[in-house]
Amino acid sequence: MSNSYGHIHHTWVQTLNPANPDLRLQQVQEKELKFYYFAYGSCMCPVDLKRSLGEKTHPYVIGPATLKGYRLGFYRYSPTRNCGVLDVVKDPKGSVKGVLYLLPWRLSEHLDKREDVPQGGYCHEFVEVHTQGQVYKNVRTYVVVNKLLEEAAPNDWYFNVVLRGAITCGLPEEYCWNLFNHMYQLQQQYQQHRMHWLSH
After folding, report:
1. CA 41 → CA 11, 90, 166, 193, distances in Å?
2. How do the residues of the chain divide into helix, strand and coil, expressed in percent and rounded to 5?
3. Among positive and negative, which fits the CA dihedral 93, 75, 96, 90?
4. Which of 53, 137, 166, 193 is deepest in the core (most CB within 10 A)?
């Protein structure tokens, strides 16, 4: 009797969460409030997101997703990153690829801080995203409040984090190349302007 019970108990734990035998923690996680979040910039990289949120975010990834009716642009200069950073702007013909997360609500405030919401850098926008043949509504993403008139170039660090996130999370190869080219061209333009100013 005890052997049979032990076996069933073990299987149940393994099925729920093989990496975590603590049932109480598992039950708390299941009851916790969560929210959908669409990341299109540096937050696509779970390693970089962990830096701000303080825990691994791989378990919260649903998968690559598409936001229709928007396009990417570097319409914010970030003082903390010291370069241009990504934004999404409405464009009926556009679409943006990114990563859909289902995050615990307790991480909401940390995410807002990362996106500079208290200082008026970004604000919440609730959107509809498509992934794996499904539509998710009321998904949180972040848009720049005071947009630049022209795009600002990313630095090498931001460039690499965004690209690593896109590749790691399985965005289409063509999209990754387009993203690479967009960032590279902005950097080239910045270098040309800089050389022009230095020579005058």
Report:
1. 39, 16, 8, 25
2. 45, 35, 25
3. negative
4. 166
Q: How far is 197 from 200, CA to CA, in rounded Å? A: 5
Residue type, 90: K
Count helices and strands in the chain by DSSP H and E runs: 6, 5
CATH 3.40.50.10350 fits 32-198, yes or no: no
Q: Enumerate the domain spans of the chain.
A: 1-28, 32-198
Closest C-alpha among 99, 79, 89 to residue 161: 99
What does the pLDDT read at residue 140?
A: 98
Q: If we measure between CA atoms, which residue out of 144, 113, 114 comes closest to residue 49?
A: 114
How many Cβ atoms from other residues are within 10 Å of residue 123's Cβ? Answer: 13
d(CA 52, CA 111): 7
Amino acid at 176: C
Alpha carbon distance 9, 30 (integer Å): 18
pLDDT tens per residue, range 58-77: 899 999 999 999 999 999 99
Q: pLDDT tens across 148-171, in order?
A: 999 999 999 999 999 999 999 899
Q: What is the dihedral of CA 178, 179, 182, 184, to 10 degrees?
A: -110
